[in-house]
């Protein structure tokens, strides 16, 4: 009997706050795919909306605001990260950038962990925002998977999402699964378990 794959905890973060966000829909599909067909990997959605705008005046006595402390605890406890974000002005969505900044305050809880980026959007499917997030990750000491990439051209036929932002395209679901498998393998490699 083959040994079970080591458990990997993935923190999933969305740059959009909209309930019917296509990027949030990608994360819901990732959770579903992981539960159905990727043993040894668990994805937890980590909400960024409760975080105040970053302001070091809110750090008192060496402590962060309660919502930030809870967020940092979840990030610190994760083995890897799955980011899904629309592109805003060729960059990362503000809610996600705010979350990244809070978790990078000393001590940086992103450091030396694996990550993957997925996105859905217009012309480039969020690609420019993904590349900007990769640049930010260099400073954070995040290690992004390089392949496969997933940029979903959300507004080109056939429909990729339903009216509630749920992913309905079978081909995109399969591509998403390949991203998750790559993230799993890379996470194990960084942990010296592969």
Describe this protein with a few key phrases.
8 strands; two-stranded antiparallel ribbon; 194 residues
Describe it.
It is a single chain. The chain is an alpha/beta fold and 194 residues long. It is built from five helices and eight strands. It has helices spanning 22-37, 66-77, 94-104, 127-140, 170-190, and strands at residues 8-14, 41-45, 80-84, 87-88, 91-92, 113-121, 142-144, 150-153. The strands form two sheets. Strands 1, 2, 3, 6, 7 and 8 form a six-stranded parallel sheet that branches. It has a two-stranded antiparallel ribbon with strand order 4-5. A hairpin with a 2-residue loop joins strand 4 (87-88) and strand 5.
State the total count of DSSP E strands. Answer: 8
Main sheet overview? 6 strands, parallel
**Mean pLDDT, nearest integer?**
94
* Order of helix and strand elements from N to C terminus: EHEHEEEHEHEEH
Beta-strand proportion: 15-25%
Distance between the termini: 18 Å
What would you call the structural class? Answer: alpha/beta
Give the CA-based shape: globular
């Amino acid at each position: 009997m083959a040994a079970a794959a080591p458990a990997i905890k993935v923190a999933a973060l969305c740059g959009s706050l909209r309930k019917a966000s296509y990027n949030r829909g990608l994360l819901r599909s990732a959770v579903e795919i992981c539960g159905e067909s990727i043993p040894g990997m668990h994805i937890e959605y980590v909400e960024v909306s409760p975080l105040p705008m970053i302001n070091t005046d809110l750090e008192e006595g060496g402590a962060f605001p309660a919502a930030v402390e809870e967020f940092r605890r979840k990030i610190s406890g994760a083995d890897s990260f799955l980011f899904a974000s629309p592109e805003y002005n060729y960059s990362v969505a503000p809610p996600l950038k705010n979350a990244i900044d809070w978790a990078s305050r000393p001590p940086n809880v992103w450091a030396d962990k694996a990550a993957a980026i997925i996105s859905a959007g217009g012309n480039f499917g969020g690609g420019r925002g993904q590349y900007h997030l990769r640049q930010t990750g260099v400073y954070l000491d995040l290690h992004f998977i390089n392949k496969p990439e997933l940029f979903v051209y959300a507004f080109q036929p056939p429909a990729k999402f339903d009216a509630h932002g749920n992913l309905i395209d079978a081909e995109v679901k399969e591509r998403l699964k390949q991203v998750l498998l790559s993230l799993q393998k890379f996470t194990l490699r960084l942990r010296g378990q592969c």
